[in-house]
């Protein structure tokens, strides 16, 4: 169950990062409210996952899901540039996440 909590927490991190971008520096009400609410949910699920997963594993995977997911959202939804170097960097992060998962108990 901890891995499911961690996965959902990571997805929520992508949502709050996108909402934060849409808030334009917390100057727009609803994107700001969504950012803070989803952020609380993401942190809450991360804390549940950390009950049984090691800190280093849980935090690394949570931030990795958020980083790569936000990168994809930026490219797909926001029209950010996709270069070979950025794509390779994202693939390296995913590789690190897979290695972290397979090297962790549970």
UniProtKB/TrEMBL annotation:
It is a multi-pass membrane protein. Pfam families: Multi_Drug_Res (PF00893). GO terms for molecular function: transmembrane transporter activity. Signal peptide: none annotated. It is found in: Cell membrane. One of its GO terms (biological process) is xenobiotic detoxification by transmembrane export across the plasma membrane. The chain crosses the membrane at residues 29-50, 57-78, 84-102. Its main location: membrane. GO terms for cellular component: plasma membrane. Keywords: Cell membrane, Membrane, Transmembrane, Transmembrane helix, Transport. InterPro entries: EmrE-like, Small_drug/metabolite_transptr, Small_multidrug_res. Belongs to the drug/metabolite transporter (DMT) superfamily. Small multidrug resistance (SMR) (TC 2.A.7.1) family. Gdx/SugE subfamily. PANTHER family: GUANIDINIUM EXPORTER, SMR FAMILY PROTON-DEPENDENT DRUG EFFLUX TRANSPORTER SUGE. This is Guanidinium exporter. It comes from Stigmatella aurantiaca. The lineage of its organism: Bacteria, Pseudomonadati, Myxococcota, Myxococcia, Myxococcales.
